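Can anyone check this?
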Amino acid sequence: LNKCRDWGRRRTVRRWMRYTVGLDTPEAAHVTDGTPDTDTLIDDRRKIERLNTALRDLPDTLKAPLLLTSIDGRSQQEAARILGITVKAVETRIARARQKLASALSRDI
């Protein structure tokens, strides 16, 4: 999501530069296209793979509330109703899942 926002900001700047500064001026030559370099792409893919592995290793009891609230955008109340547990249990399981993910990802570094 942050990458998309960054891209959108750069796009706005490029658009502004195009209309306020001629494309043949030296200032226009210094506006980047926002395309990440190969090293950044490789690093991002590795991070995504590590995150997927850490998520896969989570127990289902922790994974389900985390994915329902974080990915599906559901409230903790909705997740509790879907899973048949209390809202407090959802809150606790999300906290534990985040701790386990943080621990797993910090070990991989």
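Reply from J.R.: I decoded it. The mean pLDDT is 83.
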